[in-house]
Amino acid sequence: MKDLIRHLRLELAGFDHRRLAVAYSGGLDSTVLLHAAVRAAPPVTAVHVNHGLHPDADHWQAHCEATCRTHGIELLSRRVEVAAGNVEAEARRSRHQAFDALLDTGDLLLLAHHQDDQAETVLMRLAQGRGAAAMPRTRRLPGGAVLLRPFLSLPKRGLRAAAEELGVDWMEDPSNADTAFDRNFLRHEVLPRLTERWPGLNAALARAGKAQADTEAVLRLLLDCEALPLNDLPPDFRPLALRAWLARFDEQNVSGRALAEFAAQFDAPADAQPELRLRRGCLRRWRGAAHYVPPPPTLASRYELQPPAALRLPHGELVVEKAGSGGFCAAGALSVRFRRGGERVRSAQGSRSLKRAMQDAGLPPWLRPSHPLLYSGDRLVAVPGVRWFANDGPEAAPRWRVDWTLRSSAAQPSPS
Fold first, then answer.
1. Per-residue pLDDT tens for 7-41?
2. What is the pTM of this model?
3. Is residue 411 part of a domain?
């Protein structure tokens, strides 16, 4: 146990945190991690997620509560609903959403995944055609908390030995023995046969998976851009670039076949509009590049503001300020509205459709319905980023300038 505590302290070095937490299911691995964390870096908070998938789920939560009371450990718990579909994937997604809700920026959450788990992950991803990247050592949740897996280099047998040395109790989930689940099939049927032949296989798979994950992390850094210029890449590289780039939008586990089919359409005529639906948003092609399009924002039909003012919308921020020269003329309050179709804009050269003005300004099609339009009464006076209008306002009307900042569709970075 002393070696385990020393290992954990080394893993925690360099992580500044407001609160140290442990994801505590009540099983052997998380029980050992919780006890090691209490000894290595107190105080510690335990976080338990009740998936409600097993008849004994409430009993497991009660066990975790009793253990934490006995040792004076704060426990945060949440019950979640697991969506239909792939139970393993949906349970993981619900669990991470619960972590994000229970934790804040500055919190560091420890997860008890170990080397054997890593080997299973690499094999399962290979079998599913999703590459060979291993679980990352760290990951940042959208809310700002950081996940750390400090035991990834340690085999399961070391954790079991520590549990026996401590004499602690843990809960066994009987579903872990059900080989109908892919991971359990690998754990109980496949890996034992492979490691009998190659005893160092788990460590080798973990190293290979980490190398692949590190490669993808480097790709994400190199591809840190809002639009991915796929036309500039050789066709064979496009699916890999797409997979690495999509991680910045928290879109993982996209099938390789779907990415290859989408990338192949970049050789189609320029007016083709391929689209690939993803878990949250979708991929679109526009002007030779791949664009990630998040779900459309939920907007009111209009918003009012009295300039000078800043207006925060669900998808960005609008700022209206006094203009020394140029800008647009308007007196009194302004309203922000959105396209309904048929709008026209005016300039010294005459009148033309708002749709054409947006096209000329290079505004992607999916952004046009939610792009803010400024009205003074019923007059369209400005379209931020497109052009200024309403230079023919009342003689004494003040002049204004408007800035529109669209919120990035990228998720919080996920360091590896």
1. 999 999 989 899 999 999 999 999 999 999 999 99
2. 0.63
3. no
